[in-house]
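Re: [ENG-882] Designed sequences occasionally contain unexpected residues at chain ends

Forwarding the minimal case from QA. Structure tokens:
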């Protein structure tokens, strides 16, 4: 059993999304709806499916092909806005789709320039209504090391508790040993925390461990306590809390040599 709450939503779960959702390409509004639904294509988070009736058909390019999917037969569309073309990025579901998906369009999230929930831009993917995240200051002593090198130690971290992920420990930069860290060009984004403003690779006795730490200089307002603080992947370093070693958790981040700009940061 892991030491953090698991994701409990099943694949293909569908729920209404009680908020206005808009998507833009090249400054054109592709859709504007208050009738989107959440669809969990895997348990971690949902995607938005948009009613075709709330989509501006001027920008849809019929690619005249269909194929099957786990949620029903889909008809493929591209997007064309001025001189911007994005083929194969929209899929329209038909009558044999799962209940509630007939006439709904699934847009690839990254194919649109911007997504908005109400008037706030969102990143990477929609935020799950079943996920929760807290940032809590703690006086427990947290120690991080890698191959015997101490990377950070503090009795004043901010602990971030997020559904489906291990606790992340955010350190004041004065508690981090940057002698073993060099800046990385990696950037990632998280729908709950915002966009990272820094990553670091650990270098210990000549061996590099890519992207083991990150920071959010300007996180979302709910995560303001972590602004400018540094966290480490528990999966890639050795973490001790009040002197007790924690097992390295196994998550989607465990086997990645480096973070990726098109994936969530942790």
């Amino acid at each position: 059993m892991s030491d953090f709450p698991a994701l409990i939503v099943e694949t293909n779960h569908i729920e209404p999304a009680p908020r206005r959702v808009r998507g833009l390409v090249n400054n054109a509004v592709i859709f504007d709806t208050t009738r989107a639904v959440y669809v969990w294509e895997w348990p971690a988070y949902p995607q938005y499916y948009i009613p075709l009736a709330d989509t501006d058909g001027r920008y849809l390019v019929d690619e005249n092909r269909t194929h099957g999917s786990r949620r029903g037969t889909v008809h493929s569309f591209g997007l064309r806005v001025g001189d911007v073309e994005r083929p194969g990025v929209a899929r329209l579901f038909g009558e044999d789709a799962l209940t509630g998906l007939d006439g709904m369009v699934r847009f690839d999230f990254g194919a649109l320039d911007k997504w908005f929930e109400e008037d706030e831009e969102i990143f990477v993917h929609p935020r799950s209504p079943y996920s929760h995240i807290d940032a809590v200051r703690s006086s427990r002593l947290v120690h991080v090391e890698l191959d015997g090198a101490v990377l950070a130690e503090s009795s004043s971290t901010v602990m971030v508790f997020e559904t489906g992920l291990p606790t992340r420990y955010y350190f004041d930069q004065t508690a981090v040993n940057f002698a073993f860290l060099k800046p990385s060009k990696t950037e990632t984004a998280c729908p709950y925390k915002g966009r990272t403003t820094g990553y670091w690779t650990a270098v210990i006795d000549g061996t590099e461990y890519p992207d083991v730490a990150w920071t959010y200089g300007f996180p979302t307002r709910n995560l303001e306590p972590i602004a400018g603080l540094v966290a480490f992947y528990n999966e890639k370093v050795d973490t001790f809390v009040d002197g007790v070693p924690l097992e390295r958790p196994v998550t989607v981040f465990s086997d990645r040599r480096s973070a990726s700009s098109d994936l969530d940061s942790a």
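QA comment: On inspection the terminal residues look reasonable. Residues 180 and 204 are 6 Å apart (CA to CA). Proposing we downgrade this to a documentation issue.
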